[in-house]
Design a protein that fits this description.
The structure is a homodimer of 320-residue chains.
Chain A: E1 5-10, H1 13-25, E2 31-35, E3 41-43, E4 46-48, H2 50-59, H3 77-84, H4 95-109, H5 114-124, E5 130-133, E6 140-145, E7 148-151, H6 152-158, E8 165-171, H7 180-187, E9 191-196, H8 201-209, H9 214-219, E10 225-228, E11 231-232, E12 235-236, H10 241-247, H11 254-260, E13 267-271, E14 285-288, H12 295-319
Keywords (chains A, B): Magnesium, Transferase
Protein name (chains A, B): LPPG:FO 2-phospho-L-lactate transferase
GO molecular function, one term (chains A, B): LPPG:FO 2-phospho-L-lactate transferase activity
Amino acid sequence: MTKGTLVALTGGVGGAKLAAGLARLMPAGKLKLIVNTGDDFEHLGLQISPDIDTLIYTLANLVNQENGWGRRDETWSFMQALGELGGETWFRLGDADLAMHVERTRRLRAGETLSQITATLARKLSIASDILPMTDHRVRTRVETDAGTLDFQDYFVRKACKPTVNAIRFDGAEGAQPAAGVIRALEDPDLRAIIICPSNPYLSIDPLLSIAGLRERIATAAVPVIAVSPIIGGAAVKGPTAKIMKELGIAQCSLAIAQHYRGLIDAIVLDHADRHLAEQLAIPALVTNTLMRCEQDRERLAEECIAFAAQLHGRTRAGA
Amino acid sequence: MTKGTLVALTGGVGGAKLAAGLARLMPAGKLKLIVNTGDDFEHLGLQISPDIDTLIYTLANLVNQENGWGRRDETWSFMQALGELGGETWFRLGDADLAMHVERTRRLRAGETLSQITATLARKLSIASDILPMTDHRVRTRVETDAGTLDFQDYFVRKACKPTVNAIRFDGAEGAQPAAGVIRALEDPDLRAIIICPSNPYLSIDPLLSIAGLRERIATAAVPVIAVSPIIGGAAVKGPTAKIMKELGIAQCSLAIAQHYRGLIDAIVLDHADRHLAEQLAIPALVTNTLMRCEQDRERLAEECIAFAAQLHGRTRAGA
């Protein structure tokens, strides 16, 4: 694998953890991380890209490890002062984190693309992997709930995922094109595998797959596509994945994840807790410990995914 | 004076000190502070109004007393992180201070005027005096120097006032109208006096006087107009006033200040160090201690200015 490139699709916290493990194993420039931007929003006049930032902070080893997002050793003077001025404080922006949003917003207004900006800022923080926003166009995740149709952050942060979800849609996805770097990464003749990180399939990976042609490019790639299930024994590690699956009438089970990605993935990675599900699947499964509690966990899981992909790649090649 | 209203014209640090003294003596709503906005600029996509902020922080007792501007107990995480991202750091924005710029910028974009925003933010910080930006139009101070024509903050902060000044101009002033609140304050039948604070006449007060009709409204007001000289014994208390006067070929002397305001002011307040100049003036002078080192100094000078105005006001009335 070290001679080829690897693409990983990722959303926020869970995906970033595996991405960080992969980044430690892959040579500089060989790991391409395609990131969800459906959660992006404008707030306080700033352009905020939560999943990109979580990924940048995680890879730059700046992340707040307790939260999984935001910066560690953060200060909160801005938020405090903003509250005193009567400003909106429901979305917590740390002082150091603000630099990212201010600089991104400034550069976007100056005409740079989100892809260019992300590459520049990641390079400044010495990140050796390529962080590729799924698109430079505007795609916005909206959640249809019993409390009406909500902007993603309104649902996710302001309302703390409490409303019941009826449907999820991705405004702008149909007209959006994958970013140029995304297409290059998927068409790279050195590409060896595509890994779908254990992010929320419905909120974090689906926006990506809804962009014109992207799902098809992945499904028809000549390399193994492997998903790491975000469900362990019927529960999500973090976030509202299990709750949303229930509300959407989907069994909270890794089988449902495999079903959701049917036609797209060639194999799946399951936790030991779901070992019994492996035989019910029509695709190969790697059973391992998928819970990433520390850096060693991330790296080990990343290593296993890479080895699994290499094994499948060999099989694919042998079959070709 | 407590039954009437008072108008003061002010720029940054020096003016804000006297304004704070006046604010402690005047009843709520009776002090109207007309503030220079020629120093305003857009930086990092944020709309920054340095003189308004210095005044707000000073009146709200939030100011960094060592600098005279910015907030005390400030943190600098944003600036540090911005530097790491390769952003511009020559204009130092503290974390709490940022809230002011972000909230102002957001409200301006939403269509509020600078006057409305300033009133709202000042009210949030329990400021009982009216802070009135000189205009809601865009006026920008530009400094013609031996290093070319510079934006004010470029000259003042980035180049630390080092270039030699040949001329100062106020782009947009001719087409700018005084803000509605400014006109109301000057036309108030209860107005008792107008005080020109010891701000830099050339950089901080002239922008104000260059706005269509404002100089005339002040010059023809039926109340005493008093300037407090920012020069003490040939030196400016703070900032580049004396250096600029020298470069513009003006004697660094309170006589030159009186000359500069000729036709506009009815009286001047001089420091004891300039006692000998009083007799060379064609207008009444109050000689006192004009250096404001502490709150007591501010309040005493404010009290003396108010008493001086009342005395002149009586004289004006008697003469009318």
